Predict the 3D structure of the following.
Amino acid sequence: MCGRFQSSLPPEEIARIFRAKNVVPNYPARYNVAPTDPVLAVRRNAKTGERSLDLLRWGLVPHWEKDLSSGAKRINARVEGIDKTPAFRDAFALRRCLIPASGFYEWKKEGKARLPYAVMPKDRPLFAFAGLWENWRDRAGGKDAPWVRTCTIITGPANALLEPIHDRMPVILDESDWAKWLGDEPAEREELLALLKPRPEERMRVYSVAPRVNNVKNDDAGLIEPLMAEGGTLV
């Protein structure tokens, strides 16, 4: 799964990398993004064909759900059967997005302890998670109720680098696949599913970090500092 990640690049730089036409104002550097937080996402405007950088609520809520809080259980969408699962199949067909991330965290179980690790890109300034988004509105509020846009991060089997830590990881797309995933280029269902594969391990780096990241209230650059043992060696 992917339950925490980082988004530390300025929105202006993210918009440039993804060739989005707008910039989200006042979005600070985040080092401990948690479920239900607002996250940056790249979407394609079907009317104009342009890409936009928008704020979405992390935790997908299908339009038929009665309660917005249900999104907390859909922060991730398993790639297995994603095109057939009721909560995700419409979004997979029509509402795909990219979620920029400077890195993410994963936890390894050792006995009763859960040891945190940072997973960072090695060859790019950020990862582009494959995501889905949805529109939701509280039906109890009638036609005047505001729309809420939510999203989820697609996860699949871990690569060889992460497998000793956890058996799942976010699906990370190459830049060459962004246009197809967003819908800039036409793609059949089978082509889209073929994109959802593990990131090659040689394009990532993993290291231990301090347990401060376990607390969502901690959100500073110190969270991504490598954990050092006595003598200055990496743990």
Remarks:
- The chain has one domain: 5-224.
- The chain has a mean pLDDT of 93.
- The first strand starts at residue 5 and ends at 7.
- Residues 102 and 126 are 4 Å apart (CA to CA).
